[in-house]
Amino acid sequence: MKRKAEDPPQGQPPPRRIKKDDLAILCERHTTSKLSAFEDLREITTYGFRGEALASISQIAHLSVTTKTKDSPVAWQAKYLEGAMVPQKPGMPAEPKSTAGRQGTQIKVEDLFFNIPIRRKAFRSPGEEFTKIMDMTGRYAVHCQHVAFSCKKAGDASIGLSVSANASTVDRIRQIYGSDAANELIEFTLEINPQSVDVNVHPTKRHVKFEHEEEIVQAICETISSKLAVVDKSRTFMTQTLLPGIKVTTISPSPTARHLVRRVKRQGQVGANGVEIRTSCVKELKAEVREEMHNELTDIFSDHSFVGIVDEQRRLAAMQGGIKLYLVDYGHVCYEYFYQVGLTDFGNFGTIRFTPPLDLRETLRIAAEMESRNLGDGEDDFDVEALVEKVAEQLLERREMLAEYFALEISPQGSSFLLGLGPSVNWMDEKACFETFLRELATFYVPEQLPQLPGDEESAREEDIDEEVKERRRNVRWAVEHVLFPAFKARLVATKSLMASGMMEVADLKGLYRVFERC
């Protein structure tokens, strides 16, 4: 195994530099500064294999390195092309050349993509490229302690970014993102045994895998929650409770009604009213989701491209995954997604409050009467008042649990969602209660099925379509494309049942190529 200079212990200034003897193999593939023995692969605590980056850069640019160690009287300079050391000038040997220089290592990249003109033409404007460079430099500058960073655009007198080596993490964030962000930070550190982390699951190290994921996530959430509670136990935030851009017609109890979200107070595993949160049932439900995970479909959603909505009535959309085109039941996907969000955020929901509070029985009565009208005359008729009283009694009896676990505060003075909590939730078993409640909550957030547009061209004129339906259709389309599918990409665990009944492959690029070849 080829090896360059070692990295310093974590958190310490880097005392070692690239030595002259390391220069010969510096830009060869699989050269790494991280490992001195094969066993080190199990305990990586750094960013990974930077030697691969130097090898790649030397393939598409002119790369030069100048390095000087503390015990060397001079600095040494070498140039590279296509992974190998090359002469400084034509006719000279391809050996490092002594030169004057400061202690440390400087790496210079010039003529980027000089040998790939089509890639060079793909560059955007200098301003856009510099913005991307600044963003990436800033990200590294925040996390790399004891390393100085500076970034300057060619031709500009001022420096775009300058961070000193002795700057603290907070100072680095202040310099890069401003005082407003830095002043609101709360320090939080959670260190994992390197043997429990797999850093080689993604080529750019953007993702890692680690053991005991549930316990680690739970510990992080609890610690952050307790820190936030200590900082401010009583702050109230005004917020928009609907998805951005969504407009709906609502029945408001007062012209001055407001939606407020209160931060839920959590201290360890015991809530504000003394109810202990039993996490074992939630862990079991999360484990059941993981057991049902369809790995291939989850990967498809995490890297998909949204194509468009096909049918609002059947809630169908098209998306591309790799070289394949899929028809997606986005109602089913939303149901799975919101259920998983409920499990992830269990016991830590924000509270939505109406001022003045909604009357519980009157709200239930509205939903029951709507349900009765939908059923019409027949054997399925039911006593509205009896149903209202039964559901209200169930909710009031369990209001302490609802407030603590789901931030749903029910009072005697206090929709169809509330009405469904009566018959649809299993109140007798803890695990079944959590699951059925969250599934009912997920059902509530699934986008509605919209009526199909008239089929013939004459009746489908824009002016003939109801304004409310047009508005609802625009809202659903916007939310599906710009809110829901991006959310699926970020955190959906696609299940086997979703693959079986919510997805249909309609085309793949290879198959289309074969069709075209026959034509």
UniProtKB/TrEMBL annotation:
One Pfam family matching this protein: DNA_mis_repair
PROSITE patterns linked to this entry: DNA_MISMATCH_REPAIR_1
Assigned GO CC terms: MutLalpha complex
GO biological process entries: meiosis I cell cycle process; mismatch repair
Database matches in Gene3D superfamilies: 3.30.230.10, Histidine kinase-like ATPase, C-terminal domain
Entry's Gene Ontology molecular function annotations: ATP binding; ATP hydrolysis activity; ATP-dependent DNA damage sensor activity; mismatched DNA binding
Keywords: DNA damage
Source superkingdom: Eukaryota
Ranges of residues in domain DNA mismatch repair protein S5: 139-229
InterPro entries referenced in this protein's UniProt entry, alphabetically: DNA_mismatch_repair_CS, DNA_mismatch_S5_2-like, HATPase_C_sf, Mlh1_C, MutL/Mlh/Pms-like, Ribosomal_Su5_D2-typ_SF, Ribsml_uS5_D2-typ_fold_subgr
Alphabetized PANTHER family for the sequence: DNA MISMATCH REPAIR PROTEIN MLH, PMS, MUTL (PTHR10073), DNA MISMATCH REPAIR PROTEIN MLH1 (PTHR10073:SF12)
Family: Belongs to the DNA mismatch repair MutL/HexB family.
Name the record gives this protein: DNA mismatch repair protein S5 domain-containing protein
Species: Parascedosporium putredinis
